[in-house]
Amino acid sequence: MAVYTHLGAEDLAQLIAHYEVGSLISAKGIAEGVSNSNWLVETSGPDGKGARYILTMYERRIETSDLPFFLGLLDHLAAKGCPVPRTIHDRSGAYYRMIGDKAVALIEFLPGVSVDRPTVGQARAVGRALAQMHLASQDFAMSRANGLDISMSHRTLEHCGEAALSGIDSELPTYIDRAAQLRDLWPVDLPRAICHTDLFPDNVLMLGDRVSALIDFYFAAEDSMAYDLAVTHASWCFEDGGHRYLPDVGQALVAGYEETRPLEPSEREQLPLLAQGACLRFVASRAEDWLNTPADALVTRKDPMDFARRLQFYADAGSGAFERPR
Ligand SMILES: Nc1ncnc2c1ncn2[C@@H]1O[C@H](COP(=O)(O)OP(=O)(O)OP(=O)(O)O)[C@@H](O)[C@H]1O
Ligand SMILES: N[C@@H](CCO)C(=O)O
C-alpha cells in the first residue's frame, strides 16, 4: 500500500494543467513503497503522442524545505547522463506544487523492474551506476547533512531502550553498545560526495543487465562514497534475510564500482567497518519503525534482525568480505 491520500479526477486534472505535459488520460495508484503516495500518470504528452510520469505526494518524513535539494539532484544527475529520472517543472519553473498542505512533484517515468535476486551482471552494473552517480554529484551546488549517520543510529537504539529492543529479539539490546563502539571508530577523512545512502534493490530499476533508473533519493546526503558502497553491498549481496552472503554478487558489485571509480586504499581498508555501520543504520531505523508500527498495520514491518545478521557477517569476515577475486 502506498497511496495514503485520495486524489479525485478533478484534483489530478487541475494539477496536470499546471504542467506542459498535455491532458490527463489516466492515473493509477502504485502499491510499492511505504513513505509517499505514488501514482503512474498517463497524459496526452507535450507533443500529443502520449507520455507517462510518476506523481509523488510527500506524506511524512520528508521536509518540504529539502525538496529543492532532492529534486534538483535528480535534474543534476540526469543532465550528467546518470540513469536518474528528471523532475518535470511546472509552467512557472517550480520543482513541486502544493495540494492543500502536501507537496507533490511530477517525475519522469523510466522503464525497468526491481530485481529480487541480482545476478553477477546486474550487481556489476549497479556498482558502475553508483560510482557514476558519485562522480556526477561532485559539482552539485547544494548539500545536505546525513541525519542518519552512525551517531544517530546509536541514539535511535538508545532511545528505543533495552526493554523494547529485547521484545523484538533478545540479541538486539547488545547493538546499543556495538553502535557506540562503531561511532567511536568511525572514519571522518574518507572522500565524500552526495550519496544515495539507501540504494537497495527496490530503489534500482533494471532492464536485463542494464540499470535503467536509480530512484528514491529521499535519503540522499553528503557522506563518504565508500559508506554508500557499503550500504549497497549490505543490501544487494545477501539472501534469506541476511543468513547467506553471496560472494560472487559482492565481488561483482565492488568490481563494477571500481571500473568507474577505483577505491583509495584507505576506503578499501575501512569497508568492513563502514559496512557494519551501514547495517546498524537499518537495524536502528527498522527497530524504531517496528516499535512504532502496530503489528496489524497495513504496512509490513521490516525485520531489524535481517541487518543484525549482516552486521555480524561483516564483523566476522573483516576484509575477507571485500577481497578481490584471485
Ligand atoms: N521514475 C520512476 N519511473 C518508473 N517507476 C517509478 C519511478 N519512481 C518510482 N517508481 C515506481 O514507484 C514505486 C514506489 O516508488 P518509491 O520507492 O520511490 O516509493 P516511496 O514510498 O517513496 O519509497 P520507500 O517506501 O522505498 O521509501 C517504485 O517501486 C517503482 O515501481
Ligand atoms: N531501505 C530501508 C528503508 C528506508 O530507510 C530498509 O529496507 O530498511
TrEMBL record:
Q: In which pathway does it act?
A: Amino-acid biosynthesis; L-threonine biosynthesis; L-threonine from L-aspartate: step 4/5
* InterPro entries linked to this entry: Aminoglycoside_PTrfase, Homoserine_kinase_II, Kinase-like_dom_sf, Pseudomonas-type_ThrB
Q: Which residues form the Aminoglycoside phosphotransferase domain?
A: 27-263
Enzyme Commission number(s): 2.7.1.39
Keywords in alphabetical order, please. Amino-acid biosynthesis, ATP-binding, Kinase, Nucleotide-binding, Threonine biosynthesis, Transferase
Q: Which GO terms describe its molecular function?
A: homoserine kinase activity
Q: Which reaction does it catalyse?
A: L-homoserine + ATP = O-phospho-L-homoserine + ADP + H(+)
* SUPFAM superfamilies in the cross-refs: Protein kinase-like (PK-like) (SSF56112)
What family, per the record?
A: Belongs to the pseudomonas-type ThrB family.
User: Which NCBIfam families does this chain map to?
Assistant: PRK05231.1, thrB_alt
> How is this protein named in the record?
Homoserine kinase
Which gene holds the coding sequence for this protein? thrB
